[in-house]
Design a protein that fits this description.
- By secondary structure, the protein is of the alpha/beta class.
- The protein has a domain of about 130 residues: Rossmann fold, CATH 3.40.50.
- The strands form three sheets. The chain has a five-stranded parallel sheet, with helices on both faces. It has a three-stranded antiparallel sheet with strand order 2-3-5, with no helix packed on it.
- It is globular, with a radius of gyration of 20 Å.
- The termini are far apart.
Length: about 260
């Protein structure tokens, strides 16, 4: 009797896994804000009100140039959005932010006002990893926020395994590393050893502002300012922490499972 009740309860629940990317993406929470956009045409000459309010020095302005906003350093506190008098920096509510090149996260110049989303791996690597990707997650000095949002992808609502992507316990069983944290000096050697233990060909994914550029600890003598200072990085996923949907979208773009640009 108990077994029949259990089966009936599960049937009433139906499928709890989201349909993304085949269906619409779930809405981001109001407090998230999504990716930022810099409108260089609105950026008033001589105005640098947004520069001093940034806690990670993600915003710079050279004389005669528009504001440059580095989403890799950004912790998405929205202080710059509130401080900008002409509203040149705005939130887009777009979850898509993953890029292949570190320079693609720097916004501000005409034509570079939004994130240039990640292209897929080359055909050879897509054939190797497109249907089965095993990742070893390395927390290299993180606060556990990025780690928590990565773990969410394994829950029933996201079901990362349906895409053939799984986390494994050993780098020797992995196809690549997913790195979180600012890479403290104490973790530098451990990260190098983990990378060396992954059999080639291999990929590296940096998740979060800390893993990309050091986050709130940028330029501190006890951190390496991100994973790229220690190992080559193939995918950068910004955020503090990135929303699980941002992480999932980045992974699927890397594997060529979603188009480079999709309508919002």
């Amino acid at each position: 009797m108990f077994a029949l009740e259990t089966i009936a309860h599960r049937l009433r629940q139906g499928c709890q896994t989201m349909s993304y990317p085949d269906g619409p993406a779930p809405a981001l929470p109001d407090r998230h804000g999504g990716a930022l956009r810099v409108d260089s045409a609105r950026c008033a000459a001589g105005c640098d009100a947004c520069v001093p309010v940034c806690p990670t020095r993600a915003i710079t302005r050279l004389p005669g140039q528009p504001v440059a906003l580095d989403l890799g350093r950004c912790i998405f506190c929205s202080a710059c959005v509130e401080a900008c008098p002409p509203h040149a920096i705005t939130q887009t509510n777009d979850h898509r932010m993953a890029v292949r090149g570190r320079g693609d996260l720097v916004l501000g110049k005409p034509g570079e006002e939004e994130v240039r989303l990640a292209a897929a791996l080359d055909e050879k690597l897509r054939k190797l990893f497109g249907r089965s990707l095993r990742l070893r997650q390395v927390s290299a000095g993180g606060c556990n926020a990025c780690e928590a949002d990565t773990n969410v992808l394994g829950t029933i609502g996201w079901d990362l395994g349906r895409f053939g992507i799984q986390f494994v316990a050993s780098p020797r069983h992995a196809d690549g590393l997913l790195i979180t944290g600012a890479v403290s000096r104490n973790m530098e050697l451990a990260l190098k050893k983990s990378y060396d233990a992954v059999p080639p060909p291999k990929i590296v994914i940096a998740v979060g502002a800390c893993a990309i550029a050091g986050g709130p600890f940028v330029d501190h003598p006890q951190v390496c300012n991100g994973a790229a200072a220690v190992v080559p990085v193939d995918l950068f996923i910004p955020g503090c922490p990135p929303h699980p949907l941002t992480i999932l979208d980045g992974l699927l773009r890397l594997l060529g499972r979603v188009e480079r640009r999709l309508p919002p």
